[in-house]
Amino acid sequence: MRARTGMKSNNMVIAQSGGPSMVINMSLVGAVRAARGKAGSAKIGKILGARHGIQGILAGDYIDLRKVGDRKLDAIALTPSSALGSCRLKPTADDCRRIFEAFKKLGVGYFFYIGGNDSADAARIVAEEAEKDGYPLVCYHIPKTIDNDLRSCDHTPGFGSAAKFVATALRGDDLDNRALGGVKIDVIMGRDAGFLTAASALARTRPDDGPHLVYLPEVPFSEDKFVKDVKASMKKFGRCVVAVSEGIRGKDGVPIGAKLADGERDSHGNVQMSGSGALGDALAKLLKTKAGVKRVRADTFGYLQRSFPGVASETDRKEAFLAGRAAVEAALKGKLTKGTIGIIREEGRKYRVAFLPRPIADAAKFTRSVPKEFIAKNGHDVTEAFIAYAKPLVGELPKCETFD
Amino acid sequence: MRARTGMKSNNMVIAQSGGPSMVINMSLVGAVRAARGKAGSAKIGKILGARHGIQGILAGDYIDLRKVGDRKLDAIALTPSSALGSCRLKPTADDCRRIFEAFKKLGVGYFFYIGGNDSADAARIVAEEAEKDGYPLVCYHIPKTIDNDLRSCDHTPGFGSAAKFVATALRGDDLDNRALGGVKIDVIMGRDAGFLTAASALARTRPDDGPHLVYLPEVPFSEDKFVKDVKASMKKFGRCVVAVSEGIRGKDGVPIGAKLADGERDSHGNVQMSGSGALGDALAKLLKTKAGVKRVRADTFGYLQRSFPGVASETDRKEAFLAGRAAVEAALKGKLTKGTIGIIREEGRKYRVAFLPRPIADAAKFTRSVPKEFIAKNGHDVTEAFIAYAKPLVGELPKCETFD
């Protein structure tokens, strides 16, 4: 309890962590604008952006965000990737001591950390260690992840834009497959949760549009079923477009892609899955040998899903900005001192969301899976309920026309 | 000579062949609009679109393109991929006999084939066989290829849009690499010619922007040089973004990716390269073991480069339309009866092109490589001359901003 009663310094540090997204800079700018605005300026002194997350705090590497002009700030908001740089560091208790020493010297009483569940966990550790140490710190996590797997949010900033990229890509790729036939496999990001892969279904406008098969990590993947599904699609449509999550796993629960990719592990214990074409190639080989399909191609969408400029969802952009702003406003109110921003969808036909402060632990560490009502009973598609859920987050896709 | 003096029927067939592009439908619609227009309608009867190229002619599978409404046609023009469907078929003399029998029954005297060098070669075979058989056929190839490797064109429709996708992707990917560091390898399409990989350099706006290394199939690839280049980039920038063509080959001239991908061969004798992540993964493994870089990721851009909706270059769209129109106009003039449309860049500082009929053999079979003056002396970059060449074809890229 010492933290709440101690003398709080009024400078703030903000940083970005984990995988970049197309709108994480929107959240940064939303927070900075709120801190520089009327209410913020009365309470917040310096606004320091730490480079490469906690690493920048430990190294004393900051950008003075009060000095960055509005026009530049707005241009950065529209730019994909993490403008402050990122890291994947889980702070130790010792790291936290060093952070508080640095914060004390700089007079920092507010800390904002933008990222996914691992970043929320890092912020939670910092917040809890500060409480233990009696360092007076208001600490907020600002949600971001293209995986859409935070338990504290109906959906997360970053998801809508990545989902728009995936759905747009599938719409074009389905036309490509119409032209040349055979099987096309698209491997889509999502370590544990299949939301992004599920979003591929938004590409469809007609009954014979691809993706014809959608495989999520939430459903145990069976090679035999896969071969059978593809054969059935080839028979029905004369072709087959497959959207498959990089995180699919067999009955043993071990991700198939991670086994094939032979990748490294980060300090949160996550195995590398992206940045390798191994899973797609293995599935293509399987179909050539066991399904007897001659033309099989596999693409792994990779980092384009989170970094491609110019295709962000407008709703996602706006909400990312508002999440950043909400965190600063909640921090200034001071009711909840260790928080995250929950994004709650309101009831009713019209799409509306609220940004509500929640305990930081709600976003930390554990993730959310695609719920059962979003997964089709056949195990290789999504439901109408998922489409209704995801559509407003993604917005309009480029129109495509065919002769049929 | 019988072909020229024989009684020519006035119906036309148009078809698409080879790999789709973002603007191949623009060429289709340009040709159809010219044929339906004032000058065309006086001379051309039916306008038949054959599905899946020559395969559709052999199967008698047509769409009546006089009956498709203007609005639908315009929407198809803006849609990526080949709306009529495609194929990769090299017609035999026997196929040609069957084609002329079908054409005779349908009263077809005009044939337009949109595609790359292999498609031009297919059209050339049809044209020459018609001449031999005395079948009166005006036959035009309409240029298309994202590889930009037709000898008859300064640049080809399809290239500008694919180049815009690649440059946009690299701009985003470079920001992603700035945020998380290490080496990022992007494998880019281009079987024999490195134009598309070279276009990655358009992403740069500042001296430390990626791609830091660009490898074209025109320069023999050396693993040792690659490792050395990456180490130097890591030392200079603390990170490294690599753009590498799927077609890179060692001193033996054999494409490295084709060896790794173990793919099939089409009827023109081309080995499959795209639709596999094998090359990227092999290069990543090489760097992890020999350059001692911990974080290495590889993405293979794959079919998105030619099919992603909504990012086409405006110049490319316009020129694709005009190439289609020019083919019909040249066919109606009747001066050259077996032609292709050459796209010639005019001298002078202002970008301007002319569309000129050329003998069909000029586009057929043999391809063009990236010329020496576009390749940097260090063997891993492009020159300013290439940037000046490619920039007007691609147009504006999404603006991105950073704190530095």
Principal-axis shape of chain A equals elongated
Chain pair sharing the greatest interface: A-B, 66 and 66 residues
In helices, the fraction of residues of chain A equals 40-55%
Task: State the helix count of chain A.
Answer: 15
**CATH class categorisation of the largest domain in chain A:** Alpha Beta
**Rg calculated over all Cα atoms of chain A:** 22 Å
**E-strand count of chain A:** 11
CATH topology of the largest domain in chain A: Rossmann fold
Overall description:
Two copies of one chain form a homodimer. The first copy, chain A, has helices at residues 2-5, 24-36, 38-43, 54-59, 70-77, 93-106, 117-133, 159-180, 195-198, 223-237, 256-261, 278-291, 304-307, 314-333, 384-394; strands at residues 11-16, 47-50, 62-64, 108-115, 138-143, 182-188, 213-215, 239-245, 296-300, 338-345, 353-359. Chain A has 404 residues and is an alpha/beta fold. The first copy, chain A, has two domains: 2-157 and 311-362, 3-Layer(aba) Sandwich (Rossmann fold), CATH 3.40.50.450; 162-308 and 369-394, Rossmann fold (3-Layer(aba) Sandwich). In chain A, the strands form two sheets. In chain A, strands 3-2-1-4-5-10-11 form a seven-stranded mixed sheet, sandwiched between helices. In chain A, helix 6 (93-106) crosses helix 7. The model of chain A is unreliable at 1-5 (pLDDT under 50). The interface between A and B is large, with 66 and 66 residues.
